[in-house]
Amino acid sequence: MKVLKAAEMSSADRRAIEYYGIPSVVLMERASLGLFRAIRDEFPYAKRVLVVAGKGNNGGDALALVRHMHLHGYKVDYLLPLGEDLKGDAKLQFDILLKLGKEPLKEFPSGGYDLIVDGLFGTGFRPPVDEKASRVIVWINSLGVPVVSVDIPSGLSADKHTIYEPSVRADLTVTFAFPKVCHVLHPAAKRCGKVVVVDIGIPEQAAEGVKRWIIGDVEVPKREVDVHKGIMGHVLLVGGSLGKTGALMISARACTRTGSGLVSVGVPKGLSHIFESSLVEEMSIPLPGDERLDEKALNLILSMKDRFSALAVGMGMDRYKEGQRIVCGLLEGWEGPLLLDADGLNNLSDGKCLELLKRRKSPTVLTPHVGEFSRLTGYSKEYILENFIDLALEFSTNYSCYLVLKSSRTAVATPDGKVFISLRGTPAMAKGGVGDALAGVLTSLLGRGMHVEDALKLGVFLHGIAGEIAHEKLHRESIGAMDLVECIPEAYKRIENGTVTDSISLIV
Ligand SMILES: NC(=O)C1=CN([C@@H]2O[C@H](COP(=O)(O)OP(=O)(O)OC[C@H]3O[C@@H](n4cnc5c(N)ncnc54)[C@H](OP(=O)(O)O)[C@@H]3O)[C@@H](O)[C@H]2O)[C@@H](O)CC1
Ligand SMILES: Nc1ncnc2c1ncn2[C@@H]1O[C@H](COP(=O)(O)OP(=O)(O)O)[C@@H](O)[C@H]1O
Ligand SMILES: [K+]
Fold first, then answer.
1. Complete domains list, the chain, with CATH
2. Nearest-5° angle of CA 500, CA 501, CA 502?
3. In angstroms, rounded to a whole number, what is the distance separating the alpha carbons of residues 15 and 12?
4. Exposed (0-12), middle (13-18) or buried (19+): which is 107, by Cβ within 10 Å?
5. Distance CA 129, CA 199 (A)
6. Residues of the chain with pLDDT under 50
7. Taking CB atoms and a 6 Å cutoff, what residues make up the pocket around ligand 2?
8. Which residues, by Cβ under 5 Å, contact ligand 3, an ion?
9. pTM score
10. What InterPro entries does the record tag this protein with (predicted)?
11. What's the pLDDT at 291?
12. What is the pLDDT of residues 2-16, one digit of tens each?
């Protein structure tokens, strides 16, 4: 499913109408019928409904809904609190209602409804909201009755993750053709409640220029009957330092659970006994270094490059001068797929060798959380959160790398300008080590030779589902990164069986 911004949506609308010849009232009729069905399914008990309509096409959708409800025996009232001087398709809907004898309420009612429908503003809204509309939005939120927003909660901008005040707090948002940015990114998405997308007949080609998708259609690679461990990938994970050995172990366990044929950890010799005694299936390679990796480890790692199908660097590595030289040296000399996480990213920022990314011939994957990304780019965390998708894309295309930007949502941006957004996962995953698990999952999939884009989409999705399962089985407060790793098998099963429910459903 693609995710659009307001201008892209209006150009898709225009293309549907002007190029494909679908009359705009047909689109509005389908939008309002879908809205009607979604409300009937979600709120079957709601028979007394108040619809609040604005003056644009969002109001038009809402007025067409009033007609469907009226003709199906609902006790439905409507308000036009911003004025009755409507134009275009919205006026057409208003005129039909008047001919049916349905007049708008002249005053704000004091209550008596099971449900409020918010059709004040949709994609045509540009914040900030004016005085008059502000009062209406505040009033809707004060009623203490479930609210359904048409297209977007009025007051939000379709393009932004930001919560503008005031804006409607919806329990259900029914959007049309494609979800918009505000439906998928936090915190704005919290104002939308459950999101349902109605197919209103706009062909997918009408938005062909948009390269932003929600991750949903992932495929688990087959394991042929005649495989042997040598072709399922031998991955090398480099990192670990005194006090931070666990991070690398979590990544290593995640690799094994994700399916790697062989997993090795490259660790400071002084700490290798810890890995030897804690890891069972995974092997350890002692590298120069006592409490953390010595710079001499660099050449040794490079000398082993033919043995490994993918390399991940940085989990529990520590942030220090020699670490910077190791990371920059690996960027320059390692020829296979390379993933940088945690201190691998911090050492990259501190070592100021980002330009090396552009020169790499094999795929490079960076998996920063917002703090690490802030160090890499110099942008503030607030600015990154406000421009989450666009900045991920800016970085991946500028530096010719794959960027997995992690927050409550995760964006996978590719060097050729695509972005895939994961809506999976749960707040229970906001724990130390969960990112190390993701680094392991992704490295494992890269190591078995999957197409990089497919590996990242599957890995991020699988990790999110594993987190959801751990949350479900244990408790949101109690899960740790290793619980998530132990749920990877069940996550694989659910993806293969098709039993993962969509985060945003599409109705026709
Ligand atoms: N074929 C189609 O096109 C389809 C479209 N569809 C529907 O159309 C919706 C988009 O409709 P839209 O473009 O008419 O804009 P909409 O969201 O109703 O808002 C415009 C109104 O808001 C006002 N306004 C704006 N900013 C404001 C502010 N800060 N403070 C106060 N007022 C402000 C603005 O006032 P103006 O700027 O004109 O003075 C105008 O009156 C879309 O969300 C979907 O529901 C579906 O039916 C599917 C087919
Ligand atoms: N509220 C949330 N909802 C969904 N996923 C989350 C949430 N908070 C964190 N996560 C996920 O958990 C992981 C945390 O990674 P990271 O911040 O790198 O942790 P660490 O470095 O401690 O391992 C990321 O994959 C992130 O997307
Ligand atoms: K609305």
1. 6-207 (3.40.50.10260), 229-507 (3.40.1190.20)
2. 115
3. 5
4. exposed
5. 29
6. none
7. 342, 369, 406, 408, 410, 425-427, 429-430, 432-436, 438
8. 118, 149-150, 154
9. 0.96
10. CARKD (IPR000631), Nnr (IPR030677), Ribokinase-like (IPR029056), YjeF_N_dom (IPR004443), YjeF_N_dom_sf (IPR036652)
11. 98
12. 999 999 999 999 999
